[in-house]
Amino acid sequence: MLTRAGGLSFFVAKTPILCHVGHTRLRSLLYGCSHHHFKPTAYSPYIKDRIFMNKSAHFSNLALSATNKYIPESSAVAETMSNKARKKARRESPEGVLRFKLDMCSKRGDVVEALRLYDEARSRGVPLSQHHYNVLLYLCSCSGSNGDENVVNLALKRGFEIFKQMGVDGIEPNEATFTSAARLACAMEDPEMAFNLVKQMKSCGIPPKLRSYGPPLFGFCKKGDADRAYEVDAHMVESGVVAEEPELCALLGLSVESRRVDRVYEMMHRLRASVRQVSESTAEVVEQWFNSEDAAGVGEENWDVGKVREGVVKGGGGWHGQGWLGKGKWKVVRTEMDEAGVCQSCGEKLVCIDIDPRETENFASSLTKLACQREVKADFVRFQEWLQRHGPFDAVIDGANVSLINQKSFSFFELNSVVNRLRQISPSKRLPLVILHRSRVTGGPAQNPNNEKLIQSWKKSGALYATPAGSNDDWYWLYAAVNCNCLLVTNDEMRDHLFQLLGTSFFPRWKEKHQVRLMMTRRGPVLHMPPPYSIVIQESEQGGWHVPTITGDDLETPRQWLCATRTRKNHRHPQHLE
């Protein structure tokens, strides 16, 4: 394996990182320079924390210009060419051919062939773009999965050479460039350099992404350097980047190992707020904590009941945030909840955490904005006006999803059975709103006389809306359910790109409280209503914890929960003093 001195420090310390500063020309990242000339500073002890331009930046391959066989098109010729011809010319140009071949290498994970293509391109004088460099850096940074140590060492060494050459060529880096470089640094077991690269990215005006922070964060966690890992985490928060389960799990595990009990408490609540249901790997870390001696020894025995209750009310229920309560060994078991939300292990009833109506209003506004950006605005506004006239409804049905349950073909019979079942349980006894694409109500099974009659009856009752041609009906049924604050009948897991745009803060909570899932049986539809409790990490007023996992869905198999409690003492806890 390459050493840090021989690989990482040499290449990064001598790499000119260039970025735009306002509307000026490309300038050095770390120190000023006048328009065209870069003046490197002398090496200093803190060079490992910054990326300097060195005189070595000038040793670009000057001979390339003499042997360059590539002749760019003249602007006059380009202007007379059609768009199709220009695209074809770009594809067939040396740069276009190289781009295609490198993209193929990226798909195959073939770093060796990519490096050969790079060397060949440079020898022929083919100019490389930001995309070319980024593909090469990505392949070099991901070489660890290759399994061949010789290939890994080659990729790491060449990766930093390529990173350096990118700066020499004056190619402006972007987020992908820095992220790949940070991964290279982490592969060299230097999370410090990876973190510095993220900092430089931000100083360049390039917003770091979650993936940018992965290399330094996981690198420090692997080394057991808790303080530096927490510093990376703080930098993420400052940059507005929200950690997800892998990052929080790593920080939780590090906190357990480094015996930072307050940090463990913090990470548990961050998991509660952003992840809600945890994976098996995270559940194992949680179990490790509750089974540890540190967990048994930490906690307030005589806590202020009034203050704890005040915290519960302030937080909206399900947690208090007052720290570890109780003392002694924890009882940790895997268990299930009954239909009412009562733990089958400790007997505690989980709570249903309310959603602030203002959050729902804000979410509806955000949903409208997104839908109008991705749909024909006039079409979606027309639907909003229609909904204003005909709503509100007690339930909204994703017609296409329901009609295709257990069927290879679209079934209006199944859809109608769900409509009738929902009408029966509706407080107002009115029909639910059925959302279907226009093609579903004009062609195919819709042309059957019985189905035509059914469709007309729904239309007459104002219970059917046909979305226009070219639209995505997901926006329509989701907006209708949010706007009416009613039940949404669909088995759609709502995990694709559209729903990812809605974020992970409010939408999962709303979905949990409003989605009705469905099973078709010989006796008719079976509706699985939203649970009367929140499927999220809950911290009780007595100090116990219940952690839901993603194992089980409560539809076909019960969801698995982690229950952690301590023996409750019989003495009275002091009341809160006003």
UniProtKB/TrEMBL annotation:
Indicate whether Manganese appears among the record's keywords.
yes
* GO cellular component terms listed in the entry, alphabetical order: mitochondrion
Required co-factor(s) are: Mg(2+)
Reactions catalysed, semicolon-separated, are:
Endonucleolytic cleavage of RNA, removing 5'-extranucleotides from tRNA precursor
Q: Name one GO biological process term.
A: tRNA 5'-leader removal
Q: Which residues form a coiled coil?
A: none
Please report which protein family the annotation says this sequence is part of.
Belongs to the PPR family. P subfamily.
**Name by which UniProt lists this protein:** ribonuclease P
From what organism does this protein derive?
A: Vitis rotundifolia (Muscadine grape)
State the taxonomy lineage: Eukaryota, Viridiplantae, Streptophyta, Embryophyta, Tracheophyta
